[in-house]
Amino acid sequence: MSINDFLAILPVLVVLVTGVLVMVADVFLPEGRKGIAALLSGLGLAAGLGAALAAVPSTGTAFAGMVVADGFSLFLDALFAAVGLVGIGLAYDYFKRMRLQRGEYYTLLLFSIGGMMLMGHANDLVMFFLALELLSIPLYILSGFFRARLASQEAALKYFLLGAFSSGFVLYGIAMVFGGTASINLEGIVAAVRDGSANLTFLLVGAALLVVGFAFKVSAVPFHAWTPDVYEGAPSPLTGFMSSATKAAGFAALIRLLLVVFPALGENLAPVVSGLAALTMIAGNLIALVQTNIKRLLAYSSIAHAGYLLIGLVAVNSSAAGDAVAAMLFYLVGYAIANLGAWSVVVAAEQAEGRGLELEDYSGLGRKYPWLGVAMLVFMLSFIGVPLTLGFWGKLYLFRVALESGLFGLAVIGIAASLVSAYYYLRVVVYMFFRDGEGVARRDVWLNLIAIGSAAAVVLMALVPGDLLQVAAQAVLRVP
Amino acid sequence: MTAETLFPLVPWVVLIPLAGILINLLAGRALGERGVGLVASLAALGSFAVSVLLAVGLAQQPEGQSLLLARWMSIGSLNVDWAFRVDTLSVTMMLVVSGVGTLIHIYSIGYMHDDTRHNGDPARFRRFFLYLNLFIAAMMVLVSADNYLMMFVGWEGVGLCSYLLIGFWFEKGEAGLGNARAAKKAFVVNRIGDLGFLIAMFTMFWAFGSLSFGEVLPRAAEAAPAVLLAITLFFLLAVTGKSAQLPLFTWLPDAMAGPTPVSALIHAATMVTAGVYLVARSLPIFAAAPAAQSAVLWVGALTALFAATIAVAQTDIKRVLAFSTISQLGFMVAAVGMGAVVAGMFHLITHAFFKALLFLGAGSVILGMERGHERHAQAHDGHHGGFDPQDMRFMGGLRSRMPVTFWVYLIGGLALAGVAPLSGFFSKDEILAAAEQVSPAVFVVLLIAALLTAFYVARQLALVFFGQGRSEAARAATESSPVITVPLGILAALAAVGGALNLPGSHLLGDWLHHTVEPLVEAGFNPLTAGIALVIALAGLGLGWLLYGRSPLTRAEEPDPLAVRLKGLFTWLRRKWYVDEIYNALFVTPYTRLSQMLAGPVDQGLIDGVVNGAGGMARLLGNLGRSLQNGYVRSYALIMLVGVALIFTFLLAR
Amino acid sequence: MPLSYYLILSAIMFLIGILGVLLRRNPLIMFMSLELMFNAANLAFVAFAAYHQALSGQLFVFFVMTVAAAEVAVGLALMVAIFRTRHTIDVDELSMLQG
Amino acid sequence: MNLSNNPLLWVTFLPLAGALLVALLPDARRSWIRWTAMAAALATFAASLWLLAGFDPSSGQMQMVIQVPWLRVAGISIDFALGVDGITLLMVLLTAFLVPLAMLSAWSGVRERVKGFMILFLLLETGLIGVFLALDLVLFYIFWEFTLVPMYFLIGLWGYSRRIYAALKFFIFTMFGSLLMLLAIIFMGLQAGTFNYTDLLAQRELFAGAQLWLFFAFALAFAIKVPMFPLHTWLPDAHVEAPTAGSVILAGIMLKMGAYGFLRYNLPLFPEATLRAAPWLAGLAVVGILYGAATAFAQKDAKRLVAYSSVSHLGFVMLGIFALTQQSVAGGVLQMVNHGLSTGALFLVVGMLYERRHTRDMAAYGGIWKVVPVLGALMLAVVLSSAALPGTNGFVGEFTILLGSFGAPALGTPWFAGLATVGVILAAVYLLHLYERLFLGPLTHEENRQMPDLNLREVLILVPILVMVFWIGLYPQPFLDLINPSVETLLQSVLPAAVAMH
C-alpha cells in the first residue's frame, strides 16, 4: 500500500472525507445556519471535481487490484462531482424554502456520491458490491427525508425493499461468477476465461444476475417499477440528482462488467441486453405519454433514456466498443445537464406540500417567466433530440454506434421511441407557453442559475460538440 | 409602304388594346364615361387599323412572315417564343376580330350607359371596357400567334374574358348567383376543352420536338398515324369546348348572362370561332389523319342539327340566337372538318357580321323593352317584379316601335336563314356544296339544320316584331339612340353584301387564303345545291310564317303554336334535350359527392384517422403499461422476477 | 459432500427468500426473506471457496454480513418512522404512489 | 477564403443577427421591434440579391462554396459547408422575398407578444435559408429540424382555436419522417467517412447496395414535408391554425424544403433507386393532384381550401421531379417558386379577409367584390395565377412539367401527365368556386357592407407578388436560365444510372 494507492482514488477519498467532516461539523452548527453544511459539501465536491479534472490520480490498479484508475473512472469522477454540486445547489434553495435545512442531507449525499465514484473505479466484485451499497443506502434514507410526508415514506420503503431485492440478485450473481472462475477480481476472471479454466455456465448465470441487478439501478424495463414511485415520492432535488447520477453509476458498472464478460458470453448476453434496450425504450416512452405529473413524467423519461443508453451497451459487444463507450459517456453528460436543468425548473415550480407538480400547474409558466420557460424548452428539445442541443448529438452518436455495430432494429426502435417522446415533451412546452394559467415559480438564485446555466450549456456545447466528444473518446477503459 | 415595313407592326395589334387598358385603368376615373368609351374604342380601332396595314402588306407579299418578339421559355429542346404570324389566315381573323370588335365597342358605349343604370351600378362602366379591350388583346394573341403555345395563351385568355364578362353582373341572375355560376360553367367547360389542347401540344412536342407552326405543319405527315390521330382528336376536344360543339356546348347558352354586346362579340362573332380557326390553321395535320377529319365533320354536322332543334323552342330572344350560333358553328366546324377551309372561313366571316348584327339588334330590342318598362312603371308608379325584357312572349309589334332595329334585324335574320343574295346564302351554300361532294349523309343533315334555321328565324321575327305588343313594356318600347343604331346599320350593310367576299366566280377570299392554307375540298358554285338550299330556306321561313306570322299571338300566356303541335317533344326541345340535367347527374353531382366523400370520410376519417389512431394506440398501450404500475411493492418485485425468469428462459433456450 | 448439494441448498434458500418477498406483507418478514437471499449467496460463496480452495469467497461473506447489517438498520429505522405516522407497517397499505 | 465576403454567410445569418438585435429591444417598443425585424429581413433580401449578382448562371455546379471543418472526432467528419446552385438560389431568393412580405402582413395581425413573434420569424428565416444552402448532410439535418421549432411556436402561440393540436401534429408528423432520414444520413456517413455532400456524391457507389432503403428513408422525410398523398393530413391543420404570416411561410417555403430535398439528395445520391421509384412517386403525385383538388372543392373554410390546393399543386412539382426530363424538372423547380408566390398570396388575401371579419367560413362572405373592389381584383389575379392561367407564372410551371412528363422515358407512359392534366380542370373548379363564394353573387351579409378595402400596406404586400406572377408568366426566361444548367447537371448525374440499368 503506497501513496499511489490513495492517489488512484483521490476524488473518492476527498468526497468521502468531506462527508465525514460535514457530519461532524453539523453537530456544531446552530439551527438556522445549517446552510453552512451545504457550503462545506460544495467545497468538498469542488475539490473532488478539481482532483478529477486535474487528473491528479495515478492510473493503473491499486489496493492489490481492488480498484482501478483510468480515463473512464476519471471522467465519471468529474461527472459525479459536478452532478453532486448541482444537486447541492438544488437542495439548498429547496430545503431552505421547505424549512428542512439539515446537515445530514448533505452528508448522505456525499456518501452516495462517493459510492458512485467508487463504482467507476471498481475492479473487483467486492468493490462493485460495496460501491453499490454505499451509493444505495444513503439514497434509501434520503428518499424518506420528508419523514412526515406519506409519499416520502412510501418511496423510501419501496426503494429500500426493491433495492435490497436487487442487491440479492447481484450478490448471488457474484457468487456464481466466483464459482465459475474462482476469482472475484476482474483480472482474475479474465484470466480464467482466457486459460479455459472457467466454467462458462456458472459465469453466464452470474453475469446475467449481475445484469439484472444493475439494470435495476439504471431502471431498465422490467426492473424499472420502483423508479416512478420513488422519483415522485422523494424530495425533488434528490430525484434530480438521482436520475442523473445513479443512472451513470449503474451504466459505469455495466460497461466495465460487460467488457469483461462479453468476449466469452456476448453471443448469449448481447441479445438479453438488446431485449432490455428495446423494452425499455418502448415501455418508458409509451407510459410517459399518459403521465400528468411532471415528476412521474420525468421519471419515465429517465427510464426511456436508459433505453437509448442500453443500445450503446449492446454495441459494447462489437468492434465499435470504444465508440460505444464514448457515445454513452457523451450521452450521459448531455442527459445529466438537461435533466438537472429540468429538475431545477421543477423545484422552482414546486409549492409547499408537494403541490404545483401537475402539468396543469405549469400552464402559462413559460410566458410569465420567459427565462425559465426558454430553459425548460431547451431541456425538452434536448430530451427529444432536436438539433442544436446536446441531446441531438448524443442521439446522433448513439445511433451511429448502433448502425456501426449493425443494430438496425434497435436504431429503428430508438427513433420510433424518440418520436413518441416528442409528444410528451412538447406537451410540457404546450402547457408552459400555449395555455393560460396562474402558475407561480420561485426566483431562487441557485435554481435560476442552474436552469439558465444548464440551458446555456446544452445549447452552447451543442455548437462545439467536438470537444466533449473528444474527452469522452479519450476516457478509455483499462481493459483487464 | 412595303411589306417589310408593315409586317413588324404586328405586335401592335396586341399592344394597342393593352395600352387602352392601361390608360383606362390609370386615368379612367378622370376620363368619365365618354372618355373611357372613346379610349377603348380607339384602342380597338387602332388594332383594326394595324390589321388593315398588315393586309396591305400581305397584298404585296402574300406568303406572309413570322416575327420574333422575344424568347419566352427555353428548356433543353423546348423552345417557345413570343412570335407573331402574319399571313392571310391570321390577318383575316384579325380583321374580323378588330373590325367587328370596334363596332361593338362603339355600340357598347351607348348600350352600357343604359345597362349600368338599369342594373344600378354606373361605376361598373369602366370595368366593362377594360374587359372588352382585354378580350381584343387576347383574341389578337390567339390569331396572331406563331406557335401553338402562344395561341393557347390567347385561347385561355379569351376564356378568362368570357368568364369575366359573363359574370359581369355577378350579383344578378337566378338566386343572385346565376350569372356567377354561368361564368364559372363557361370557364370550366372551356378548361375541359383546353385539356385537349394541352395534351395535343404535349403529343406534338414529343413527336415533332416543336410547337411552332413553321416547324410542325410542314412536317405533319412525317409522324406516325396514331400520333396524328391523337393530336387531332385532342384538338377536336379543344374545338368542342371553345366553339361550343357537341358534347361541350352547354356553356354557351348560359353565357348569355353576359351583357348583350359581349354575347355579340365573344359568344357569336369571334371567340367561339377560335375552334374553326384552330382546325383551319392545323389543316395539314388533320389532312394527314382522315379518321379525325370525319370525326370533326360529324361533330360539326350533328351539332348544327342538334342545336337548331333546340333553337326552335326557346323563348328568350338571346337564347335562340345562342343556339343558332352553336348550330352555325357546327356548319363551320363541319366545313373545316371536310377540309373546305375557305368555305368555313367564309361562313365564319359572314356569320360574324350577321350574328353580331342579330345580337346587337336583340340588345337594342332589350333596351327598348327596358325603356318601355320604365316609362310604363313611372306612369303607373312602380311594380317592377317579374319582368323579363328578354322573353319573346312579352314582345310583339316592335316593328313599328323600333323601325330601324326591325329592318336591320330582318336583314340579319334573312342572312342567317340563307336567303339570296344576303351574305349567309353564299357562305352556307359553299359549305353545302362541299358536303355534297364529301358525304351525302352530312349534306342531308346540314340541309335539315338549314331548314330549322330558317324556321326559327321566322319564328323569332314574328314573335318579336310582328303582331301586337303582348306587354305594357312592348307597347311602350322606344327606338335606341344613334350610337347604337349606327353600328347596327354598318353591320347590316356588311351582312347584306358580305357575300361579295367570295362570290361564285370571283373567289376573292379563296385566292387570298390560298397563300396560307391549301383547301382539301374546293367547292365550286353548284347551281343545283344552291337552288336546293334556297328552296329549303324559303320553305323554313314559310313554315315559320305559317305557324307564327299568319295569326300572331295576342297574349303572353297563350301557348306556343309549335308546342300545340309537337306536344311532349316540344318540352324536350325547350329543355334542350335535358343535356344540362344529364351532365349534372353524370358529372357535377357525382363529383361534388365524391369530393365531399374524399374530404370527409376518406381524408378526415380514414387517412387522418390512421394518423390520430396511431397516436391513440400509443396512448392505449401507455395506459396499459401504466396499469401495471399499481403501487404495490410486491407486484413490482413480481415484475422483476418475471423479467429474470424471461432472461433465464431465453438463456436456457439458447 | 459434493459441491452440488451446497449449491442446490443455496438455490432453494434463494428461491424461498424470493417467494418470501413476493408473498409476505409484513416488512419485517420481508427483511428476513431478503436476509435469506443474502445468506443463500453466502452459502454459495463458502461452498465455492472450499471447492476452489480460494479464500476470497470466504472474505466476501464477511463483507456481505456487514453490509446486510447496515441495510437492516436502515430498513428498521424506516419502518419505525412509518409506524409512527400510520400505526401500521403493512406494505400493501403503502400504495399511494402509482400510475 | 475570405468568408466575410461570401454572401452565403450573410444571407444565412443576417436574420439570426436581426433576431438577436430584436431580443435586446424593450418589449414595449413595438414599432422599434417591427422595424428592426423588417430591416433585418430586407437586409437579407438585399444579401440574396448580392448573391444573385455574384452567381454565374452559366454553370450548373455549386458555387461560392464555403467549407469549414466543424467536427473531426472519432471518425466523424462534419463540415460547415454551404454552397449555391441555380435551384438553391431561386429558393433562397424566394425565401428572402416572401419573409418581409409575410412580416408586413403581421403588422396588424400580430399585436400581442410582437417581440417574440419577430424573433421567431427571423430565426425561422435563418433555418429555412440554411436548409437550402447546406452542403453537409448533418448540417442540413440540423437546419431542417431547427425550422420546426420556430414554426411550432408561431402556430402554437399566435394560431387560432385548434392551434395546440395543429402545432403538435405539425412537429411530430414532420419528425416522423426526418428521424428515419437521420438514420440514413448516419449510415451514409459511416460508409463514406464523411457527411459532406460533394464527397458523398463522389463516392455514392459505397452505399449503392443499400440505396433503396436509403432512398426510402429520405423520401419519407421529404414526402411528408411536401406533402405527398397520403402523408398530407398535417398540412390542413397546420395551415388553418397558423397565423397568416406563418401560413405564408409554411406554404410558400417550408413545403419546398421537401421538394428541394428530393432534388438535392434523393435524385443524385441514389440514382438507380430514383429510377425504380419514379413511377411510384409520380403515381402518388398524380393521386395527390386529383385528390387535393377534389378535397379542396368540398371545403367550407377558405383557408382549408387553399391548404388542400397546396396538396394538388405540390403534386405537380413532384410529378415534374420524378418524370426526370429536363423540361419537367426545370418546370418543377419553377413551379416551386410559383406555388410560393401564388399560394402565399392566397393565404395573404384570406388573412386580410379574416382580419376584417374574423372568420374563414366562406358562407360568411359572398358578393363582397362590390364592397372591396381592389381586394377583389387582386384576389382574382391571384386565383388565376393559382389556376395556371396562361400569362401567369403558374402556367409556365405546370405546362413545362406536364409537357416534360408526357413523354418521359422514366415514366414510360403518358398516362401520368394525362391524368395530371385533369388536375388543371379541377383547379379551375375549386378556385373559381372559392372566388365565387367569397366575392361574387349578391351581398348576403349586412356586416360585410362596411368592410374597408385594402389599405396601402396591404396593397404593398400583394403588388410585389403580382409583379413576380406576371413576370414569370410572361418572361420566365431569366428564371429558366438560372434553373437550366443546374437541372442539366442534376440529370446528368442521375441518368447514366438509367443506362446502367437497362
Task: Report on the architecture of this protein.
The longest helix of chain A is centred in the middle third of the chain and has 53 residues. By secondary structure, chain A is an all-alpha fold. In chain A, α4 runs parallel beside α13 and α7 crosses α10. In chain A, 77% of the residues lie in helices and 1% in strands. The model of chain A has no long low-confidence stretch (mean pLDDT 91). Chain A has a two-stranded antiparallel sheet with strand order 1-2. Chain A is built from 19 helices and two strands. Chain A has one domain. Chain B has 654 residues and is mainly α. Chain B is built from 27 helices and two strands. The mean pLDDT of chain B is 89. In chain C, α1 runs antiparallel to α2. Chain D is mainly alpha-helical and 502 residues long. Chain D has two domains: 225 residues, no CATH class; 225 residues, no CATH class. In chain D, 74% of the residues lie in helices and 4% in strands. Chain D has a two-stranded antiparallel sheet with strand order 1-2. The N and C termini of chain D lie far apart (44 Å). In chain D, 68% of the residues are buried. The interface between B and D is large, with 53 and 61 residues.
Q: Using DSSP, what is the number of strands of chain C? A: 0
User: Ends of chain C: how far apart?
Assistant: 50 Å
Instruction: Determine Rg of chain C (CA atoms, Å).
Output: 17 Å
Q: What is the CATH T-level topology of chain C?
A: Helix Hairpins
What's the short story on this structure?
With 99 residues, chain C is mainly alpha-helical. Chain C contains three helices and no strands. Chain C has one domain (3-94): Helix Hairpins, CATH 1.10.287.
